[in-house]
Write a structure and sequence with these properties.
The protein has 187 residues and is α/β, with parallel strands linked by helices. The chain is 39% helix and 12% strand. The chain has one domain (12-184): 3-Layer(aba) Sandwich (Rossmann fold). It contains eight helices and five strands; from the N terminus they run βαααβαβααβαβα. Strands 3-2-4-1-5 form a five-stranded mixed β-sheet. The relative contact order is 0.24.
Length: 187
């Protein structure tokens, strides 16, 4: 996805979901307990995003990243040769799925709909509160153009909370987050 840099706007928060992993490809739940790297397609996705979004990347003032390897690799590939300050935020980690981690999508069905809670993991409410706090933390640490590289679950927590038209975000998909809306959310 190509992101346009809006002239004159300094307070922008961009969100990118990490590139594809073998778990994504094989429809396996890789929660916050599963620290797995990008696969070759995920690496290509991150490089393609970088190539298509050079103006946005150059305009960035700060980058905030999940501690998980797939997010860190994506950030590194997206930034390429740009020297931008990168900060790891622990709470940007994916949903801790407990007993659902490493099970197929078919076994657990859609994690983000319904009321089921992962056995031995974070409740949906705990994860959503943690995700919103993490995004607010990233937004509040720098007033300028900020990039967050994290997970589909983190995006879903934000998007579902504000009824954003895009609830699901593909690997290396990106969206802009409204900082004013984020500031008004209670974690």
């Amino acid at each position: 996805m190509f992101l346009r840099v809006k002239p004159g706007i300094r307070r922008v928060l961009y969100f990118i979901r990490h590139g594809q992993t073998d778990a994504n490809l094989n429809r396996i739940n890789a929660g916050g307990e599963s620290d797995i790297p990008l696969n070759s397609n995920g690496i290509a996705q991150a490089r393609a995003f970088s190539a298509a979004n050079q103006a946005m990347i150059e305009s960035l003032d700060a980058v905030f990243v999940s501690p998980m390897i797939r997010a860190r690799q994506t950030a590194e590939l997206v930034l390429g040769n740009y020297d931008k300050p990168v900060t790891i935020i622990e709470n940007l980690r994916e949903w801790m799925l407990g007993g659902w981690s490493n099970l197929s999508y078919d076994e657990t069905q859609d994690l983000f709909t319904g009321q089921r809670q992962p056995p031995g993991g974070e409740t949906r409410e705990q994860f959503q509160a943690r995700s919103i706090r993490a995004l607010q933390d990233a937004s509040g640490r720098h007033p300028g153009r900020v990039l967050v590289v994290a997970h589909g679950g983190v995006w879903h927590s934000y998007a579902s909370r504000i009824a954003h038209p895009v609830i699901h975000i593909d690997n290396c998909g990106s969206e802009e987050i409204c900082r004013k809306t984020l500031e008004r959310l209670s974690a």
